[in-house]
Specification:
This protein has strands spanning 22-28, 37-40, 46-49, 61-65, 68-74. By secondary structure, it is mainly β. The chain has a domain at 18-74: SH3 type barrels, CATH 2.30.30.140. Strands 3-2-1-4-5 form a 5-stranded antiparallel beta sheet, with no helix packed on it. A hairpin with a 5-residue loop joins strand 2 and strand 3.
């Protein structure tokens, strides 16, 4: 048995090595649980994002992966604290 970690040979689509979360700002919250909120990237692109895993409010910055916010990056000034 080798002591070396296995090499990742999956190219640019490796879900463990290549995927990254994208920072997005929350523009509008969903009207019901399990519905997506409206968010924007730094370049102004808007996407619908599920916020069910984080306690985010309008103006907060979240890290998004696969259309789901997986972490709160920063709170907006005056945003409700958890």
């Amino acid at each position: 048995m080798s002591d070396r970690a296995p090499a990742c040979d999956h190219g640019p689509s490796c879900p463990t090595c290549a995927d990254a979360a994208v920072a997005m700002r929350v523009l509008a919250l969903a009207s019901a649980p399990l519905e997506p909120a409206r968010c924007t990237t730094a370049d102004g692109s808007e996407e619908l994002v599920l916020l069910d895993l984080v306690d985010a409010h309008v103006g907060d910055e979240v890290l998004v992966h696969g259309g789901v916010a997986i972490a709160l990056a920063s709170r907006a000034a005056g945003s409700a604290a958890a």
